[in-house]
Design a protein that fits this description.
This protein has about 300 residues and is of the alpha/beta class. It is built from 15 helices and five strands.
Length: about 300
């Protein structure tokens, strides 16, 4: 599917730039007479800014010249933010014809940022690299690792360091048991996306896969637990083994049981492993959501 607008990708330097108080008028007000300009007000100490800015950059590049992004560090250049009465960051303002026309505060989910840009510029379709990532995910779900890996690798060639593509290719290697190549692949992510949720989730998945390789036989571990329900080491390894087999609910159950028996065993190893599970599964996974609720119930009971 072709992007909704734009005939070719403009160089990133023309679409995304930093501005100062002195250059703001030219970079934003004057430029917005030709094309809508999004201004990202941020600061180095702002955690949510570090989450939002890569999303803005990704979607602006995908818009292929229909919008531009200008970033302003309010620590170094506070005057414009004060004039706009910005009281919290990240703060995003959209300018058209020299005037602010829309905006939002906080690190919104990518879907909402996309909708914001669509409204501003008339629609943002997936880039060719994003289309390959979608194809890779479909092939991965169908267990066609070869096709998935080819799609993700193709996306990386088009957009080097694209986090979704890097994470997808690394998961292909994890699934095939090639943990070293998975680790090398994760190192390809572009520097500004090292904390991307897909990258951190894949890093957690790699850590789990490496641990699970030495977890032991499920039957033997179950036999040990049957003899001694408080054999925490057996439960811990059973959780890893079950997770490796795709039984996420069973894996979480075993760690919750262990934590409920003795939350301080091995310096709260069960709780720490649960957190790693949740990171690997992702924040929206049903097992993550129910597991976090159950863990909180135990911790605060």
């Amino acid at each position: 599917m072709e992007p909704t607008f734009g005939t070719s990708a403009a160089p990133a330097g023309e679409l995304i730039k930093d501005t100062t108080t002195q250059t703001f008028a030219a970079d934003v007000l004057d430029a917005s007479m030709q094309v809508p300009v999004i201004v990202d007000f941020w600061a180095p100490w702002c955690g949510p800014c570090k989450q939002l800015t890569p999303v803005l950059e990704k979607l602006v590049l995908a818009a292929r010249g229909a919008v531009r992004l200008v970033k302003m560090n309010i620590d170094d250049h506070p005057a414009v933010a004060q004039q706009l009465r910005i009281q919290s960051i990240p703060a995003v303002f959209a300018f058209k014809n020299g005037q602010p026309v829309d905006g939002f505060m906080g690190a919104l989910p990518e879907s909402q940022v996309r909708a914001f840009i669509e409204k501003l510029a008339g629609g943002v379709g997936p880039s060719p690299a994003e289309e390959l990532v979608e194809a890779g995910h479909a092939a991965f779900e169908a267990k066609d690792l070869s096709a998935a890996a080819q799609a993700f690798a193709g996306a990386i060639q088009l957009e080097p360091g694209l986090p979704a593509a890097v994470a997808g290719l690394a998961r292909c290697y994890i699934e095939s048991g090639d943990f070293e190549r998975a680790r090398q692949t994760l190192g390809l992510v572009r520097p500004d996306a090292k904390n991307d949720p897909e990258i951190t989730a894949t890093q957690a998945a790699l850590s789990l896969a490496e641990k699970s390789a030495d977890a032991g036989d499920v039957g033997e571990l179950l036999a040990r637990i049957e003899k001694n329900p408080k054999d925490h080491e057996a439960r811990f390894n059973l959780a890893l083994a079950l997770n490796a087999k795709g039984d996420k609910e069973g894996a979480v159950d075993q760690l919750l049981i262990s934590f409920e028996y003795d939350r301080n065993w091995n310096e709260q190893a069960a709780r720490k492993q649960l957190v790693e599970f949740f990171d690997a599964y992702g924040p929206k996974d049903e097992v993550t959501l129910s597991g976090r609720r159950r863990l909180s119930s135990i911790m605060f009971s």
